[in-house]
Amino acid sequence: MSGSARWWTIKNIAKLGASGIRKVEFTDFWLGDQFCSLAYSFSNLFFIGCFYTRIFPNIHSTLSSSQNWGWYYTLGSLPLLIRLAQSLRRYRDSRLPIHLINAGKYAMGMINYFFYYYWRHKDNLHHGTGYVLWCFTAIIYATYACAWDFLMDWSMCKPHARHPFLRPELVYTSQIPSYYFALVSNLCIRFFWICYIPSSGPSLTLRTFIAATLEMLRRVQWNFYRIENEHLGNMDQYRVTRELPLPYNIDPIVNDDEEEEEGGEGEECDEDANAEPSWLAKQLMRDSRRISYV
Fold first, then answer.
1. Residues 85, 28 contacting (CB under 8 angstroms)
2. DSSP secondary-structure letter at 64?
3. Alpha-carbon distance 214 to 210, whole Å?
4. How far apart (Å, rounded) are the C-alpha atoms in residues 253 and 272?
5. Which of 26, 58, 47, 66 is CA-nearest to residue 227?
6. 210-56-53 Cα angle (round to 5)
């Protein structure tokens, strides 16, 4: 990364620490969404910090998520907390209820993570209150987040779109199948938490790593269609455009300075109608065009 790019990244990451205090811009909530897909990486900061500061004799048993699940949950849910604060601030500034609905999505994600780590702490895989609550909140959060991805972040599933389940305006018109692949893959990865349920198979640590990797790939895919939708929205609201429509006609209107004589016949000759306009008339028409375009 160049020096300016590094400075831009550091500056905007630092701004996330003031979420809820300052006005939220597109860069703020876009960057916050990127960090939401890095919950696995954030949660392991506790493991990395302890590993490099104190080399425990039995590192895996001492720093396992089942014993220190509170730290893992706090660090893993920090990006969700940031996005929750941003959504509440956007509601305060705009008074649009849609931001409260978005805040509910991140609050549901924090609740889901809490019951997930609580269930892992109890080490009961197929029964118990923690397992039932985790499955229940996971279903709600996955459905909530996937519906928001389709309807709000991507503006898909429009009823009168040329291509079913897409939107009327598309930027990647030569890559229509990629839209459908994104819809299906996004849905599958959102519900990939089901892989934790079977008792046989790979260890939970490996399953968690696979799920976290797929989530990061899903976010890369999500970025293309989220930026596309933001660009189309800016064009619709004329925040990004080269031309602005005017509420009146800018075609020059030529007024006849000739007045009809009283008592005249009121008819013009064909020669006068087809006559070439004079130099003065041409100058007036040119000046009227300049005034109209100013």
1. no
2. -
3. 6
4. 19
5. 26
6. 85
Contacts of 138 (CB under 8 A, 6+ apart): 112, 115, 116, 193
pLDDT, tens digit, 9 for 90 and up, residues 58-76:
555 555 555 678 888 999 9
User: How far, CA to CA in Å, does 88 sit from each of 75, 77, 94?
Assistant: 21, 17, 10
Query: Quick one: three-class SS letters along 240-259?
Result: CCCCCCCCCCCCCCCCCCCC
The SS3 call for residue 22 is strand
Spatial separation of the C-alpha atoms in residues 130 and 119, rounded to whole Å: 5
Q: Positive or negative CA dihedral for 203, 207, 208, 210?
A: positive
Four-residue CA torsion sign, 200, 201, 207, 210: negative
Q: Provide the token pair at 119.
A: 């269930």
**CA 294/CA 282 separation, integer angstroms:** 19
Nearest to 19 by CA among 90, 100, 123: 90
Say if residue 98's pLDDT is above 60: yes
Instruction: Decide: pTM greater than 0.85.
Output: no
Residues forming a β-bridge with 22: 19
**Burial of residue 237, with CB atoms counted within 10 A of its CB: 0-12 exposed, 13-18 middle, 19 or more buried:** exposed
- CB-based contacts of 172, cutoff 8 Å, min separation 6: 178, 179, 224, 228
Q: What is the CA radius of gyration of the chain?
A: 31
Given pLDDT bands bounded at 50, 70 and 90, which one contains residue 226? very high
Rounded CA-CA distance 241/101 in Å is 30
